[in-house]
Fold Alkaline phosphatase D family protein.
Amino acid sequence: MTPPTLTENPFTLGVASGDPLPDSVVLWTRLAPHPHEPGNGLPTQGNVPVRWELSADEHFRRVEQSGTVCAPAQDNHTVHLDLRGLEADHVYWYRFHAGRWTSPVGRTRTAPAADALVGEARLGLISCQQYDEGYYTALRHLADEDLDAVFFVGDYIYENAINAQAGARRYPADRALPDFYNHWTVNLDDFRQRYALYKTDPDLQAAHAAHPWYVTWDDHEVENNYAGDISQDNLPADVFRARRAAAYRAYWENMPLRRPQRPNGPDMRLYRRFQYGQLAQFDLLDTRQYRSDQAYGDGWRYPGPESENPARTLTGAEQERWLLDGFRNSTATWNLVPQQVCFARRKETTAARSKLSMDSWDGYPASRQRVLAGVEQAGIENFVVLTGDDHVHYALDIKKDFDNPASRTLGVEIVGTSVSSGFDGEDRPEDWSTMTAANPHMKYYNGRRGYVIVSLDEERLRADFCTLPGVITPGAPVTTDASFVSEAGAPGLRPA
């Protein structure tokens, strides 16, 4: 089949890189000359040849590798280029060409060699970017940060209907969105178009082009608060698995992921491990695909025999074994676990018996206890959980016994607020006083939008919680609202 002639720019969705290894990184793009149309203006069959270049300088005077790959129609004309033979801990620039068109330039970086002594790592933490609840100003600022990599820990898209005005973005009539977006995502075309809408955002494109990303999902990439094969709306299992298969396929297509992550129907192996020299080990989790159904519904409920059943799991047995084996084999100074929902306990009131979130690790306490037992048994001294989901910033100590504030601190949790979900937010949400009083291990709580910069060296971890005054109008400045540190070998967060 003759490739189509590209009469319009196909690189409307930008470029991205991800999952860096010492000798490899994934480069991504998606061809979409008409991004708001089903099919994106390209044939539904065949391939489009795409040329690529990798350079040691941003002006491409020293091109180190180049070649041609295909953007297959069956993959919605996406490219997942797994480059090999690269230099460890090295910055590269890349770009793509299709027809007479050239993509924006992306900047990426490989990981340090496994045995390398790494002086410092600077990592971004982001999540939850509902398109119709605000602008991605936080991502524009994140693009300007000096980072080695970014962790995105869930809710890259949302499945809700979006009106012609794009909700809080209040698009005028001459920018109105097509009616296609004004329904909930169900099938593969729906999910593909939803990613296309999100990826047209220039601030999201800038953040992808500036840094390599490690990604994992949460619930809204499929459906709010789903649990394994169980739909929040109690759809028949076969109907929901078909929806999940469509969602997983579109997710893989639109993320800088390798071939082993390509889904098989409604199943996709997304949990994976990375080494960052001798400094850190990253264990990215998937707490949606394998979890038991939420106990007592998926909101805030009183714990009881159902939620405390030892057989309940948030990770599934296979992923849990993989995680604990990784702890036992780790020789890194820091063990980071980027994942979706709050790990530390959060009581809603100061009463001895209080409601807890059944959708978070509080709804799966036996699962959490097995992870913490694995941390102790492996002798992990610097256990760090990186979390999204809650649309607020938290700094939390992870206690051996959350009922005893004086008990041993086994690690720390950094919860990053949303990019845009929840509109502008506020510095002190209405439950701020109650939550901080009920949870003495909660060292910080802020409800604005933003991101976190996590810095690591051999001596300490530092978390800088960055916030914006608002996101329903673009262009807000970013400030560092608070900073906390945890010393290596003596976990526990304190103000920097």
Observations:
- The mean pLDDT is 97.
- Residues 6 and 100 are 8 Å apart (CA to CA).
- Residues 1-110 form a domain with the Immunoglobulin-like fold (CATH 2.60.40.380).
- The first helix runs from residue 137 to 144.
